[in-house]
Please model this.
Amino acid sequence: MSTLTGSVRSSTVSVAVFDRCTGVQLRYRFRVYPTAPQRQSLARAFGCARVIYNDCVAARRRAQTEGLPYPTAAVLSKTLITDAKRTPARAWLAEVSSVVLQQALADSDRAYRNFFASVKGRRRGPRIGPPRFKRRSGAQSIRFTRNAHFRVLGNGRLRLPKVGEVKVAWSRELPSEPSSVTLIKSSTGKYYASFVVAVDDDADRLEPLTDPEAETGIDLGLKDFAVLRGGRVIANPRFFARLERRLKKAHRELSRKAKGSANRAKARLRVAKVHEKIKDSRSDWIDKQVKAVVGENQALYAEGLNVKGLARSRAAKSVHDAAFGMFLTRLESKAHRAGRVFVKVDRFLPSTRLCSVCGALTGPTGLSGLKVRTWACGCGARHDRDANAEVNIRREGRRLAVEQGLFAAGLAEN
Model:
């Protein structure tokens, strides 16, 4: 891949967003600005990919209903793509890259394999249902692999088959040749290119910290987002709560528009923009907090929350707004890549009730105990509930880290 030279200009919304790390593969996302003809070509590709996906779902549903053998991916590829292009009803499939169609078929096949694995108990997490038909609304995406011969040019543009050279707002250079690129159109009409690249294991590794106090427990909560070592508090930004009134107003306006009208489409876009602002602000804030916490500590111990259970409680709206699951997932991924120690403490540890001085369970209990911010133990110690929980989480996390042999020399002695 050609090296990008000269200054680069960042996009206004999440130009380079790190999603997740799988082994040594990372995903980099950049804002792209296709021209009007290129937007038409992309719309055609989005539609063709959606048609192939839905045709695959329909074919397998029909086979199940009629008691026929399960159609394999090879059979579907021949009948729904190769043979269909020769028919007048599906001749327009030849107007887009065949790789896009094959990837849509692969997505459908993967969705069915995940469904069968879930039914047989071979897949982690809750059971999932069979694949459903895709609709035209919402975000849309297509994927190009190396077989499509996409390329990042020396002038910084992205060349896509049957689309052309698309302008990209680069915020950083790609560390290696991308193995695939996914073109995404958001619900607000913005376009992004998401590259999958392979990097070295030590590419993001940080220098180890030898300070014995460079470790922290992380007590998550709704009043304060997190409490770290020494009583340091990360305030809860409450992004959804800030824009909730604006969102309610946008939804009211949407409900008053006639279905199918141009005004309803405009109102839907206003609702989508509010949701996008909340999502992007939250994601950017979490990335910054994760980077700061990982950079300041050699060892991190977090409580393993039952986020799904909390999301079904009376505080569900606030739990979703805080995005604890997103924070813990990115923190764990970033810590492992940076060479830091990360341990999740059992969520059943009574970190709030346990006195960090004498070890007695004398802290507040029950729903009424949630309002108690400070409490006194019989041993004479007086605790802030969150700071006390952080100490207990840190001690338990350190114990687990020693058992698992995760500690570097120097920190284990603290």
Observations:
- The two ends are 47 Å apart (CA to CA).
- The first strand starts at residue 25 and ends at 33.
- Residues 218 and 228 are 5 Å apart (CA to CA).
